[in-house]
Model the fold of this input.
Amino acid sequence: MADLDIQYTDGPPTKPRMGGRDPGELRSLHVTPGFIGPADGSVLLELGRTRVICAASLVDGVPGWRRGSREGWLTAEYSLLPASTHQRTPREASRGRQDGRTVEIQRLIGRSLRAVVDFGALGERTLYVDCDVIEADGGTRCAAVSGGYLALHLALMKAVDEGRLRALPLADSVAAVSVGVVAGMPILDLEYAEDAAADVDMNVVMTGAGKLIEVQATAEIVPFSREAFDQLLDLAEEGLRTISAVQTEVITDVYRSRAGRDG
Amino acid sequence: MADLDIQYTDGPPTKPRMGGRDPGELRSLHVTPGFIGPADGSVLLELGRTRVICAASLVDGVPGWRRGSREGWLTAEYSLLPASTHQRTPREASRGRQDGRTVEIQRLIGRSLRAVVDFGALGERTLYVDCDVIEADGGTRCAAVSGGYLALHLALMKAVDEGRLRALPLADSVAAVSVGVVAGMPILDLEYAEDAAADVDMNVVMTGAGKLIEVQATAEIVPFSREAFDQLLDLAEEGLRTISAVQTEVITDVYRSRAGRDG
Amino acid sequence: MADLDIQYTDGPPTKPRMGGRDPGELRSLHVTPGFIGPADGSVLLELGRTRVICAASLVDGVPGWRRGSREGWLTAEYSLLPASTHQRTPREASRGRQDGRTVEIQRLIGRSLRAVVDFGALGERTLYVDCDVIEADGGTRCAAVSGGYLALHLALMKAVDEGRLRALPLADSVAAVSVGVVAGMPILDLEYAEDAAADVDMNVVMTGAGKLIEVQATAEIVPFSREAFDQLLDLAEEGLRTISAVQTEVITDVYRSRAGRDG
Amino acid sequence: MADLDIQYTDGPPTKPRMGGRDPGELRSLHVTPGFIGPADGSVLLELGRTRVICAASLVDGVPGWRRGSREGWLTAEYSLLPASTHQRTPREASRGRQDGRTVEIQRLIGRSLRAVVDFGALGERTLYVDCDVIEADGGTRCAAVSGGYLALHLALMKAVDEGRLRALPLADSVAAVSVGVVAGMPILDLEYAEDAAADVDMNVVMTGAGKLIEVQATAEIVPFSREAFDQLLDLAEEGLRTISAVQTEVITDVYRSRAGRDG
Amino acid sequence: MADLDIQYTDGPPTKPRMGGRDPGELRSLHVTPGFIGPADGSVLLELGRTRVICAASLVDGVPGWRRGSREGWLTAEYSLLPASTHQRTPREASRGRQDGRTVEIQRLIGRSLRAVVDFGALGERTLYVDCDVIEADGGTRCAAVSGGYLALHLALMKAVDEGRLRALPLADSVAAVSVGVVAGMPILDLEYAEDAAADVDMNVVMTGAGKLIEVQATAEIVPFSREAFDQLLDLAEEGLRTISAVQTEVITDVYRSRAGRDG
Amino acid sequence: MADLDIQYTDGPPTKPRMGGRDPGELRSLHVTPGFIGPADGSVLLELGRTRVICAASLVDGVPGWRRGSREGWLTAEYSLLPASTHQRTPREASRGRQDGRTVEIQRLIGRSLRAVVDFGALGERTLYVDCDVIEADGGTRCAAVSGGYLALHLALMKAVDEGRLRALPLADSVAAVSVGVVAGMPILDLEYAEDAAADVDMNVVMTGAGKLIEVQATAEIVPFSREAFDQLLDLAEEGLRTISAVQTEVITDVYRSRAGRDG
Done:
């Protein structure tokens, strides 16, 4: 189990943020691959105080509506541990239904990851990507996408190692980040207190090659201009290049440690 | 019950689309205000073959978590009539739960409309905006936002007329439109067959004053470039100015017909 | 899309009712066939201010318990749009279950329509009849039966036209009407305010040939005598002959307009 | 615990039925009052092989929508024990929802019993009438109404004895019976095998004074004539007079045994 | 339908209990075999005022996860009739879910009965054991196990009689009893009022041969010593020998009455 | 965040077990207090490969049925992360209900912890103890009890520190362990593969003072003798003394580190 602890800073701060970060500065990003033993692929992704366990399982068979298509499928699920939030969040299994926010987030994660999977190469198999937030301090859906991609990659690596797949059925990598406008200033990677104070909230999902998969911008209180929107998208793209680089490092490191073990 | 039937065309077609529309051409837009008698405000909005009944009800009281805040709330609900789609859609009430797409759409409608309501001026009242699609040919969520705004405006007009409110608690108007890339060409206001063939699918919600409320872009198959994204947003903004103009005309017409009746 | 607007009056009023109707007078009845484009058969049926969209879909296959029987099935579903009632009715899909009244009504509609369908001739196909009330002013279940029959007939006509069926698998037509006792007077086709004041509430379903399919009489407050019951049934039979005549006219008109189109 | 075992026969058989009964003959009717110790009022009602436990509980308070009205309410619930039917019926609590038939039946029982309760005299109290079928051989809903009335009466007697109520808040008694047409012959009180073969199925609820509370007639296969309907209603009224007489006997017997105990 | 009414007393009372029982004395135990006509096997088991209907149904097929195993399965279900308890218990089917206590109890009954069934000899068939409490005065889960075993045995006897099975697929019999500590005194077979006052509550399931199947001891208020625990287990084993003897008597009696009928 | 890593071995192995443990040897036990930042009290408890996050939250108010009692309440919830098991476990929130095993386990945890809380001293507050298994290798319910106690203790310490409580409302500590018989040999603390092969499965909950709270023994295949039962209970008591000692050490360590920080 290798740990990568990388902290990124871009130049001198232009304006003080909560926690002293620059407007375009990510929180410290820490990834622990192999966090869940029985999972095919898993990571603990920590982005500042936001911590998400992402696990991917590769299972034979596909949902009924896709049977006979010779193509696979990917389903993502997202959940907050009750104690992950400042005020305890009631457990959805106890209430008997997932709330709207959960449904919306897991649909976003699923769409984002499906965009880079080659389902023909996967064959009639289903990838389950489970994202369980153990501590929530803003940006959990983006952390889930970035971590979910890593878990997915590791699960597919294992399937290749075991001969279940010939090659990785992946066209690119995926990362996500949030941006927003707080007190008139566009900032990257909002923590909870910033998110609560944001006028605009935006989540961007991008591939490692710099193509967009999903852009979701929402005016929290005041509608925003096209200019503000463009600025936020620039900020997000910059942050996503950094996260993408960390993802590459994590994957490379796992390949190396396996090679070392095998060699 | 006044009907407005407006058809917009922008110059000669540059490239053939299904149904012969130009890339930047809206479908014909038809609004029937007062479509549901008992509702406080209602319209039937028809955008080509897509038809949505939007109804707004103003009810005293707010959800528990907002009680004592002296502020109101707005909840949107969205549903497809089973026969509205080419293949019958099973009724959600029979299955005992709303599916993820429904939840996601009604959250979008709710956020979009809440962005222009002054909840302090509304006081502890709840606006329910019900959007029931009676025929679905693409763009139903956008039609629901545009029509939902009209129903909302009419319901608030009625509350002002009846003396429940002193003035319209609205900061601006709201309209939504879809854009997408089909066969490499960015097009406005996709009908169902185009939507099914789209590489990128994007919904944009904008105020009458041209400010953005929500931007949601999704890569259906292939991730997209920042340039494509910018082009789509331009196309959407143009279409939204047209829808916004129709909304103004509908509202003006209702005011006029009331004045005529009263005078 | 042809419209039929027929208003029935039977002689001079003997006693004043709400809206000035005679005791044995139906509300104005208006049918718009083809109201929902994608449906196999559909109508908007308007009975005074009560308005119901009825749509029928013919789908291959039958429920599990009927598989292998070589016989078809018919399922009816009924729903009130939230804004259809004076006080907004909460959406059943949001609450996660259909209430008892809905279940009871859709069972009545299903039994009524199944009584005239020849399921052997239909083969292993399912007819879904969806009745969505867009405005409720009393008598919605009866309007749903009468309109549901029309949607069903139109859907089966289409299946015959397309060669899916050799002949209409229908033994007769079906119509329904409500009768009741208000302030001691038996009256036909109660609107909501009358229904709320009724001592006895009765719904009668009859075929075009004058045979009974379903009779449901309920004492709302005071039990009633056999004589009152017999009087009400007489009144209902008379009203049903009128509705049945309108149904015939609607169907005939659709056949004529098709013949004109084809000829 | 007193048992009453009464068998009614009306003249010589005119035509053979299953089990040798005359067309207008009830099955043997057996009532065990006080069958459930903790209930305020209860009976085991046995009608041939159909056996139903009916229990009534009088609880302070009313449902929210009736609070402040100074009037009471009555709620009926109906359930089949899984082993009560020839093929085991899956338990509704395990499946998480009541099926349509259950909902329809318990609404019928509730309406029937409410028709004779004086809710003003009851005050803000709720009567729960639970009807649990332990063996089902046709006519369970009618047995539940007839037995439910007895449980209700006994519970109210107890409340009067204990001084919770000044007088019985009952305007009349209630009984129900089924009639139907089998092989062209109108018959009374159908057992399961007859019910399955019936062309018309009808349930009639009547007061002890001979007034109608509910009439529900359904064509199972072939629509029926007004004449057949009238004949069935005659047959039902005759049967109901017999059931009503048994109810009176049961109640009288309980009063006597109490008087004996107290005197 | 044979009735067995057996009352067991062990020596002179050492200390007064509610109802005058000795600490080690069972309540009177009464079994009515064949209580539910349509069930394959059934009993009414009465233990003092606690009364449970137990019914067993043998159905072809097994749950999906066990298909192809050539082994059978047993599922137990437990329910309280609403009126069975002093304060009416809301019906689980109405609330849409079984509560935790019900789930826990039916799992206990299922495990207890499965321990003596030879599922290989049963083949791919499912035994449903339904335990419906009609009156609850403490010890219902134990009464359900003891009665459930009898229903199960009778259902299997019937299957052997009908040639569906060659021999009884049973390794032993099963009985259960509760013990507890009330006011410092270990007592057997607690009735409700004792149970509510108990410091320790323990349920023991044992085979006829004296082997343990399940031991569940719970400190209600104060944790208990190992010594107290051992004493309780002794008391339970003694009571279980008595119940087991009654079970043998019931089964023997049924065999005898069948032999008499056949001979 | 202090880590305690303690490995317990009791003398030389007498017989080989999976993983080389002695029959009476616990797996390595590792506790990380403060694992979840926002929780009032939390630990990650690792028992061999079994890993559970336990978090306790202290919330003002109690469930409705306890209001006005001046006493608090404790509710425990238990969940398996989908990827925690070898074959992915479907998420209960997606299926809309908790399964029977989950319900049974969380009831056990709740009863065990409630046995040592002084609810009068707690006042009208609710303790939520959430146990989320991130890796399941046998003994998860016992790990949840032992870890749940620690989370509970830490949450109450925090409440005392913050002045919400005057003193710890705890009468004792609580720990749990599993024992079982595998291949005829009684063993302590079964891992998953042993559990799957066990003839008898037993969970014991004990206080730090050595009093029993809960004993649950189940015959998985073959009923067991009283002697085997007694042996298992001896083995469990020994293991529980060890776990209890670790709990004391963890708590002491947290107190010390706080004192160091404050001093």
Remarks:
- The radius of gyration of chain D is 18 Å.
